[in-house]
Amino acid sequence: MANSPKLRIIPLGGVDEIGKNMTAFEYEDDILIVDCGSIFPKEDMLGIDLVIPDTTYLVSNRHRVKGYVFTHGHEDHIGATPYVLSQVPAPIYGTKLTLALIDLKLREHRVNGIPYHAVQPRDEVKIGQFTVKFIKVNHSISGACALAISCPAGTVVHSGDFKIDYTPVDGEVTDLSTLAAVGDKGVLCLMCESTNN
Fold this sequence. Notes:
This protein is 20% helix and 29% strand. It has helices at residues 56-60, 75-78, 81-87, 96-108, 176-185, and strands at 7-13, 22-27, 30-34, 65-69, 92-95, 116-119, 124-127, 130-136, 145-151, 154-158, 189-191.
């Protein structure tokens, strides 16, 4: 058991900062990427228009990247897509609005040939050795989802940005029952977004 394959979680951005959200999940030879965000430069970054995550590791392992999954369509989660996907192309998965916003960016930067897979909350997709379940959450943009990412090593829950709102504008509340069902099966790790907390 001690030598069994491990799940590696590699933050490429978004840790201890607001923006550049991007995390690699690695199991054996497969890499799954969650989000691909950017951040606007700080005042002392003269001449810089946009800051994106360091993708050196992904570029050197591009053949292992099986896909990108997106929690929602805010810039800090999708803003780096044209720059990253042009170097490390792979299929992308997200809700309809999220993919539409990414599509605008990719078209603007003439990044072609990326397969799109639209999902709805409660959909499960198989990406390499990973299975990703999309779970509806409330946020200040439609189409936001938490993710239950499973592989033979276990399950990680990635919350994405969320709020608990019992009277959301779209009438669809956060799917707490699905989150609870995932928790009942056992979770290796909860990765929870937090701003200014």
